[in-house]
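Please complete every field before forwarding. Incomplete forms are returned to the sender.

SECTION A: IDENTIFIERS
Entry label: holo-481
Bound molecule: 2-acetamido-2-deoxy-beta-D-glucopyranose
Molecule representation: SMILES string

SECTION B: INPUTS
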Amino acid sequence: MERGQRHWHSRAARWLASLALLWALVEAAAHKSDLGSDASSALINHSSLLLHRLQGLLQNGNSSDATLRVRTANSDEVKVIHAHQLLLALQSDVFEGLLLNRSVVTLQEAADCAALFDKFIRYFYCGEISVHLNQAVTLHRLASKYHVSALQRGVAEYMKTHLASESTQGHVVGWYHYAMRVADKSLQESCLQYLAWNLSTVMGSSEWVTVSDDLMVSLLQRSDLVLQCELELFSAVEEWVSKNNPDVPVIEKVLRSIRYAMISPSQLFQIQKESAVLASYHRSVEDLLFQAYQFHSTSPLHFAKYFDVNCSMFVPRNYLSSSWGSQWIINNPARDDRSLSFQTQLGPSNHDSSKKVTWNAIFSPRWLPVSLRPAYSESASGGAQTNRLEDGKPRLVVSSAMSGLDFAGVTFQKTVLVGVRRQQGKVFVKHVYTVHQSTDEATGFLAHADLQKRTSEYLIDNSLHLHIVIKPMYHSLIKGK
Ligand SMILES: *[C@@H]1O[C@H](CO)[C@@H](O)[C@H](O)[C@H]1NC(C)=O
Ligand SMILES: *[C@@H]1O[C@H](CO)[C@@H](O)[C@H](O)[C@H]1NC(C)=O
Ligand SMILES: *[C@@H]1O[C@H](CO)[C@@H](O)[C@H](O)[C@H]1NC(C)=O
Ligand SMILES: *[C@@H]1O[C@H](CO)[C@@H](O)[C@H](O)[C@H]1NC(C)=O
Ligand SMILES: *[C@@H]1O[C@H](CO)[C@@H](O)[C@H](O)[C@H]1NC(C)=O
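SECTION C: PREDICTED COMPLEX
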């Protein structure tokens, strides 16, 4: 026993010494500049060989001084991994602590974590790991549990950049729930925003019924949801309620989050007649329905004299249907300025349903404020002028074509949705800019779009995909006594 142990110690010591030597070689190789500018110096780079050897060490278990026994509840199977304290401790203080005074540790892991445990340990030996959509949560959980912070950050970053990836089941709802459990606010916010901006797609997918009560409530409170119309949202919420059977207070809360004033009175009447959920919970929303009918029966200005319009029910979301705005696909957007004319309804009130407003939009790929424009007298410096023009920034201005139209306290908020390509040609909303008139009011409109580059992620078949939504806001209307 004692001999064996001494033998083991000397082997470990030799092993450590050779590892240290290898690292020293790599370090020296990597710091080529240390060698000076001597023409006879050269870089000997065996770092990939070293990584290969380290992985061999794990594969064959040579000189192993740490045995990990990975167990899963409800299973007799034990996965045994022969590893090395030094490498585990290098990146994980949890392993360091576990291996402090023993060389065999038994770890209890959930089945999905146990299945990826080899892959996870391999990361300690080569610093790389491949991640698939359906492995991200598991790997993040392992990295968090064992305090492998670099991997944890790496996986979180992977998730944030792969929200729009194609998957059969959908993965963002699951990632959101996970982010909420581990209190990763930033990942949670990224998922929530993705879901909000692509709600139509999510509502039509099998992912929709997996949305938790909390997520549903958070989503319905947002005014930046991108969807066809409020009626589409109502139908999806109805489906979610009937498939999930949440608690009554949750049902009441979600039904009260529908903005009934944004649904036309004939459609309101239709859902009141046909919706089973609405029939069961009519008492919980009847005040809102009544108010919506009142809103539709008069002009918003008149309505605002008697009721407080400063509440979410009267704030439109980002509706894609044509009465609210227009899509604008700009081919070869870097070429020159373009304009678009389109009509919207004056507002969502049925009272105004026959009134239309015409809007003019101007898109400039390289707009410069007057103060920065080259003076005409300097026509000699043609070169400098070109440079100046290239300094310009993309800009979009939307204004009403009807001058003198009195909107009396109603402000029209313009929201510009920017769609980008994702795999398999589908488009998803990457940015949402909300302005009063011009994108100058928003910071960084298309700042990183590289519209000149054909390969820009913002160009789909060499076209920029915009959608302008016009939203009347009644906030500023003063409530009478
Ligand atoms: C050494 O080689 C590897 C690939 O084999 C490479 O990634 C690394 O950058 C090289 N190091 C230096 C200092 O050139
Ligand atoms: C590791 O062990 C295997 C088999 O036990 C042996 O063939 C191999 O040479 C060893 N590798 C090193 C680097 O010692
Ligand atoms: C390791 O040491 C800690 C305290 O230093 C002790 O609580 C623990 O029982 C020890 N474990 C083994 C396996 O000896
Ligand atoms: C995102 O939303 C846009 C429009 O809102 C839609 O065209 C697109 O298909 C959606 N993409 C995904 C991935 O949900
Ligand atoms: C609207 O309500 C919010 C809080 O709900 C308040 O901060 C804001 O000042 C109100 N605006 C007007 C115009 O009354």
